[in-house]
Write a structure and sequence with these properties.
Keywords: Glycoprotein, Receptor, Signal. With about 70 residues, the protein is an all-alpha fold. It is built from 1 helix and no strands.
Length: about 70
């Protein structure tokens, strides 16, 4: 794997790294783990349309919290 320490021209390297993520509920996560532990083939299709900028240029966000917040 490429790393910034291996290159002298690493300027901007870190800024270009993008790690997509998604939230799933516990029951779905448990079923995924069970399938993987059983060596079943797992295929996921993730729809990223909601995560790309909207065409009207408005800023949109969602606020996530949990019951432990004070």
């Amino acid at each position: 794997m490429d790393s910034p320490e291996e290159s002298t021209d690493a300027d901007g390297y870190i800024e270009k790294i993008v790690i997509p993520s998604a939230l799933i509920d516990k029951s779905f996560g448990d079923s995924l783990k069970e399938s993987l532990n059983n060596k079943d083939e797992v295929l996921l299709r993730i729809d990223w349309r909601e995560s790309v900028p909207h065409p009207d240029n408005r800023v949109e966000y969602e606020f996530w919290t949990n019951s432990n917040d004070e």
